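PROTEIN DESIGN WORKSHEET
SECTION A - STRUCTURE
LENGTH: 403
TOKENS:
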């Protein structure tokens, strides 16, 4: 045997293996193909993502945390170069791939995958590529698990192909106080409101924007201690208090009026401190994480006080069907789990929008839970240069009981 027809196993090995030259009637087997590169991307509800030119396996992951189970609808659009795809719950065994794409790539598709053109579509009927809408249905066992749309592209895709999540299930709603015997109350009050750059200018209430889970709750006015008090129940006004006095404090001195009075307004005076509790519409709060966002317009300064409290509820002692939000002033409660913070918003050196965000959970349960709290504001770097800064202030939201 000629020396050129043998190959050493490795540099250190004393052993050799015979290699059959292809010109002598055989062929050296090719090296096995490498595994395709696998990447993962987060796909949000109602989001669209473009593939770009890539080859490999790509997993698009949709987080269903705190969402109801049922149908989730996806769409792959403008698929010209053929791909394979499948959908499954993360951690489960993926089902067989489906195939979409144009038959103009049939020969290359056969060479790359060994599949014929039977699952490919005509370019004449689909000049912009194939679009496929498909539904994945989750069950009760899949609640808060990730849905994975896995796409395998053995050939380089084209830029205009996309995937989107066109329909998701709504969030799981917070339990009602009638079930849990607790109700969450969110209070936001403002004070010291003024325009820092225009002396004496009137500040409209819309310059301080308050949103809960994306829904706007306008301030009645910007007089000192005006605000909103949101009761996390459905819209039927069946929750009240036994006394209007001292919901969160037992004394007058040193405490702002929104802690000393449950509700207050002066009829006919649009500039008097005003806070009238309101019950939320059905579906306004979820069983998972809820988001409260207070945004001040550029140039506006104010103090914002946020209180989140979980109150015990009970039946009214005299009125059938009337529910009572027990608080400190009526001496009929056990404990109120509560947290809150006052923050001065606005920067006299920089005219910029500022954002105070609080994310909380455990709505209408015994204890308040704060999941995240941030303060976004602009800070100066050099003369004429600034940057947005986001401060983590969750440590400034201690949970305590009002006794």
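SECTION B - SEQUENCE
RESIDUE ASSIGNMENT:
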């Amino acid at each position: 045997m000629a020396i050129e027809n043998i190959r050493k196993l490795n540099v250190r090995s004393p052993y050799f293996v015979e290699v059959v030259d292809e010109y002598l009637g055989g062929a050296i087997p090719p090296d096995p193909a490498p595994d395709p590169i696998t990447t993962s991307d987060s796909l949000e509800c109602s989001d669209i993502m473009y593939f770009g030119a890539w080859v490999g396996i790509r997993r698009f992951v949709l987080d269903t945390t705190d969402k109801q189970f049922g149908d989730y609808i996806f769409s792959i659009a403008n698929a010209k170069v053929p791909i394979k795809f499948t959908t499954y719950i993360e951690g489960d065994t993926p089902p067989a791939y489906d195939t979409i794409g144009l038959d103009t790539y049939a020969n290359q598709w056969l060479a790359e995958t060994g599949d014929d053109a039977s699952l490919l579509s005509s370019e004449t009927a689909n000049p912009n590529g194939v679009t496929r809408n498909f539904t994945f249905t989750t069950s009760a066992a899949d609640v808060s698990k990730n849905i994975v749309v896995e796409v395998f592209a053995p050939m380089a895709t084209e830029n205009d192909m996309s995937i989107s999540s066109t329909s998701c299930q709504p969030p799981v709603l917070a339990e009602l106080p009638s079930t849990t015997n607790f109700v969450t109350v969110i209070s936001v009050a403002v004070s010291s409101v003024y325009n820092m750059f225009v002396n004496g200018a009137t500040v409209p209430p819309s310059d301080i924007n308050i949103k809960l889970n994306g829904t706007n709750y306008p301030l009645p006015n910007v007089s000192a201690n005006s605000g909103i008090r949101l009761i996390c129940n459905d819209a039927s006004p069946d929750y009240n208090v036994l006394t209007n006095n001292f919901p969160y404090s037992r004394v007058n001195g040193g405490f702002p009026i929104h802690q000393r009075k449950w509700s207050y307004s002066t009829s006919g005076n649009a500039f008097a401190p005003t806070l009238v509790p309101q019950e939320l519409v059905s579906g306004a709060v979820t069983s998972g994480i809820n988001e409260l966002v207070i945004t001040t317009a550029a140039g506006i300064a104010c103090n914002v006080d946020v209180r989140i409290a979980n109150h015990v509820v009970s039946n009214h002692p005299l009125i059938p069907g009337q529910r009572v939000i027990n608080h400190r002033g009526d001496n009929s409660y056990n404990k109120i789990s509560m947290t809150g913070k006052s923050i001065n918003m606005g920067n006299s050196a920089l005219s910029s929008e500022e954002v105070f965000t609080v994310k909380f959970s455990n709505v209408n349960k015994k204890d308040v839970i704060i999941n995240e709290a941030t303060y976004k504001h602009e800070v100066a770097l050099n003369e004429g240069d600034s940057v947005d800064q986001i401060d983590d202030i969750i440590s400034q939201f201690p949970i305590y009981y009002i006794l």
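SECTION C - NOTES
The chain has a mean pLDDT of 87.
DSSP finds three helices and 25 strands in the chain.
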